């Protein structure tokens, strides 16, 4: 193989790799930015889905903040979940049987 043939093969390979990388980057979805410019996934507070001591923060009597819920599925204790998933998450204490976007009384 001559020197010019080797150079052509290497140049062609490098070009193909650069083109492949460009296509990969172009196909990668861009995450939405918040008002503060930081990238994050949308979340919402979901009441009645946290297990005992696993809530994210307070909601009512007996809870002061993270990890203070006294029972599983406490209706006034919440957990952050992906936006849109709360009311699809099972909660045996909820009137609907699913997590709620607001505190509720145990059924």
Spell out the blueprint of helices and strands.
Blueprint (H helix, E strand, L loop, with lengths): L2 H25 L15 E5 L30 E5 L25
Antiparallel strand pairs: 1-2
Describe the structure.
- There is one protein chain.
- This protein has 107 residues and is α+β, with helices and mostly antiparallel strands.
- It has two domains: 1-30; 38-107, no CATH class.
- The chain has one helix and two strands; from the N terminus they run αββ.
- It has one helix at 3-27, and strands at 43-47, 78-82.
- A two-stranded antiparallel ribbon has the order 1-2.
Q: What profile does the largest beta sheet have?
A: 2 strands, antiparallel
- Secondary-structure-based class equals alpha+beta
* pLDDT < 50 runs, ≥5 residues: 23-39
Counting DSSP E segments of at least 2 residues, the number of strands comes to 2
Any idea what the shape is?
elongated
Task: Describe the structure concisely for a colleague.
By secondary structure, this protein is of the alpha+beta class. The chain has 1 helix and 2 strands. The N and C termini lie far apart (81 Å).
Please tag this protein with its features:
alpha+beta; 2 domains; two-stranded antiparallel ribbon; 23% helix; elongated
């Amino acid at each position: 193989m001559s020197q010019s043939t080797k150079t052509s093969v290497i140049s062609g390979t490098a070009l193909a790799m650069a083109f492949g990388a460009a296509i990969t980057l172009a196909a990668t979805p861009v995450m939405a930015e918040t008002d503060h410019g930081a990238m994050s996934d949308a979340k919402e507070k979901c009441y009645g889905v946290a297990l005992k001591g696993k809530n994210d923060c307070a909601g009512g009597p007996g809870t002061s903040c993270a990890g203070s819920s006294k029972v599983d599925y406490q209706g006034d204790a919440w957990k952050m979940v992906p936006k849109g998933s709360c009311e699809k998450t099972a909660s045996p204490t909820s009137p609907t049987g699913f997590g709620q976007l607001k505190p509720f009384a145990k059924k």
